[in-house]
User: Fold Protein HflC from Donghicola mangrovi.
Amino acid sequence: MRKTAIILPALFVGVIVALSSLYVVDEREKALVLQFGQIKAVKEEPGLAFKIPIIQEVVKYDDRILSLDTDVIEVTPSDDRRLVVDAFARYRISDVVKFRQAVGVGGVRAAEDRLSSILNAQIREVLGADQVTSDTILSSDRGSLMLRIRDNARVSARSLGLDVVDVRLKQTNLPDQNLDATFARMRAEREREAADEIARGNEAAQRVRATADRTVVETLSEAEREAQVTRGEADAERNRVFAEAFGADPEFFAFYRSLQAYETALKGDNSSMVMTPDSQFFDYLKSDAPEAGGN
Assistant:
C-alpha cells in the first residue's frame, strides 16, 4: 500500500516530464530550441522532437511567405516631379538562427519594422536614381525598377535572416497639391482644345455661309441675265409684231399706239397735262362733229 502511494505520484510526474519534453513542428513552421536564451537546436523538418523539460524552451516561426505593406512615402525622380509611392513586399524567414540573433524576442514585428526601413530606403534610392523620371516610373519600365528594388532589398535583408521574394509598387500618384495643379493644367488644355475646335467650327461655318451667299448671288445673277435675255427676246418679238402691224395698216397702228399712250398718260385720279391745243397727242380725242350753235 505504501509502495503504491509512492509509485503512482512518481509515475504521474514521469509522464508529465516526458510529455513536456516532447514538441511537434508543423510543416508550415521552423523551430528553435533555446536554453537560457541561447540557441541549442534548430528544427526545420516537420515532426516530433525532444527537448529538456523546464530548462529548454521552443520558439516557433512561420515558414510560409509573408506579406508586408510599406508606409506611403514621397520620392523625387530625376525630373524633380514628386510622386507618392505605396508598395508591398513578399518575404520569408530563410535563416531562423540569424533571424533570432537579429531581432531577439521582438520576433516578426521587429523584423518587419526593420525590413520596412530597408524597403523605403531602396525605393527612394532606385526611383531617385539618374535617368529615372516620373514618366519611366509610370510606364512599363516600372517592372524592371521593381526588380532592382527587390534585389537591393534582398541583399540588405539577408542580415536579418530574411529572403525578399518580391516587391511591388501598388500605387504611384502625384501628391495632392500636385494633383490639383495637374488637373488645373489638364482642364486648361482641354478648354484650349475646345476653344480651338469652336474657332475651327466657326471658320468652317463662315466658309459654308460665304459659299452659300456666293451661290445665291451667282444664281440670282444668272436668273436675272436669263430674264433680261428673255425680256429682250420678247421685246424684239413685240417690235417685230408691231413692225409687221405697222406695215400692214399704218393708220390702225398709229391709232392703237395712241390709245396705249392715253392709257399710260391718263392713269390715276388726278392726272394733269400741259400741252398746246393743236398738239398731235389729242388728234384721236378730237370730234369731227360741228360744235353746237356753229355755222
About this structure: The helical segments are 2-20, 96-103, 107-127, 134-137, 142-157, 176-248, 250-265. The chain has seven helices and nine strands. Residues 64-174 form a domain with the Tetrahydropterin Synthase; Chain A fold (CATH 3.30.479.30).
